[in-house]
Amino acid sequence: MGRNGHSSKIGGSCVEIGWAAAGIVYLYLDPFAFNSLQLAIGEVRVAHAMGTQTALKLRHREILSSIVRTFIETGEPIGSRTLSRLRSQALSPASIRNVMADLADAGYLAQPHTSAGRVPTEKAFRAYVSLLTAARVAGGESDRLRTEFSGLPTLGARVERSSHVLMEMTRNVGIAAAIPSLTQELDQIELIPLSDNRVLMVLVTRDREVHNRVVAVDEPVPAEDLISIRNYVNRNFSGWRLGDARRELVRRMLEERALYDAVLRKLQMLYQKGLLDVEVTTEVHMEGASNLVGLDLRLTREKLRDLLHALEEKQRLIELLDRFLEEPAGELQVRVGLEEAHPAMKDLALIGMTVQMASGQPAKVAVLGPMRMHYERVMAAVLQTSRALAGAQF
């Protein structure tokens, strides 16, 4: 793997589990099997971040997990007596106090007030996430989502719907982005003559995205020449990836003898005007920012306003996904503590992954929420939405 971790088999496909530095944990699914893999989500475990799991004894890990789970539910400091009552396995408050003292010394617990109990630190949340198993989700729900995505006409509509689905499933902030690439496949082009030596070039990709461009040409191009060029490109390059089609078209224009010189010259002219080019823009959608307002993020009103403004900036969202979801398609990543992205995101966490859609274009889907989130449920929602998005057909 190139990282510390281990592999296991799920549904006949390799699932590698490992961890990375800087508080990121990831789960790797073989990208070639990702679309067809029926995730046995309840069996998948996320490995630990920064070696925290091996540094803790079994009892310490169990008590730390109990503290974090209780804190997620209540938001209140936890004392040893409270923890003793909540535990299914009997352990005296004195024994729990000793373990909690060890955890505090190691930086996993903090005490907000002298008389109060303990609260988990960012380090504790990272250790807790490393021990999780994603909550089981119904396979039928994934099938329903895949069918719903397949019924949407464009890539942009699917990305937008993904962010909404994640927001609804988790009650946090759902983010989805389609990343531009040269992997989009050409469906067809259309060339329409306009007045004043202009041509409308229409390019349609296999993911049903339509790109229009009006270009001015140096000389008139008869309608029959535009038809010949259109037919040549569609006949020879429909189904090709745009990057490959452009390279091959350049090679053929240097050698091609099938087209007579006048049409070839006009084809070269239109190519130079961007015949097979598409605008490289990221389709990004975010829903649910208002869900952050009612959370105890320990922010002043001004800092909360800055955070909400930051989430409204498209470029900021792209940078957030690019910075913290760097692994290839199929790797579920959990990032706890996002202060590097924005000071007001210190107590937030990001759970997301990159997927390869049926069109060949990669997308990133993620949930942004409080450090005190229900991680198993959110991880399951991201996996489920990602699987449906990757499997949806055009």
Secondary-structure map:
Elements (H helix, E strand, L loop, with lengths): L4 E6 L2 E7 L4 E6 L22 H4 L2 H17 L5 H7 L6 H13 L3 E2 L8 E2 L1 H9 L8 H12 L4 H16 L2 E6 L7 E9 L3 E8 L4 E7 L6 H15 L4 H14 L5 H12 L10 E5 L13 H12 L1 H11 L6 E6 L11 E9 L5 E9 L4 H17 L3
Structure overview:
With 394 residues, the chain is of the alpha+beta class. The chain has 3 domains: 20-35 and 138-180 and 283-391, GAF domain (Beta-Lactamase), CATH 3.30.450.40; 52-128, Arc Repressor Mutant, subunit A, CATH 1.10.10; 186-272, Enolase-like, domain 1 (2-Layer Sandwich). 40% of the residues lie in helices and 21% in strands. It has helices spanning 52-55, 58-74, 80-86, 93-105, 122-130, 139-150, 155-170, 223-237, 242-255, 261-272, 301-312, 314-324, 375-391, and strands at residues 5-10, 13-19, 24-29, 109-110, 119-120, 173-178, 186-194, 198-205, 210-216, 283-287, 331-336, 348-356, 362-370. An 8-stranded antiparallel beta sheet has the order 1-2-3-11-12-13-6-10, sandwiched between helices. The chain has a 3-stranded antiparallel beta sheet with strand order 7-8-9, covered by helices on one side. The protein has a two-stranded antiparallel ribbon with strand order 4-5. α2 (58-74) crosses α5 (122-130), α7 (155-170) packs antiparallel against α13 and α8 (223-237) crosses α10 (261-272). The chain is elongated, with a radius of gyration of 26 Å. The two termini are 34 Å apart.
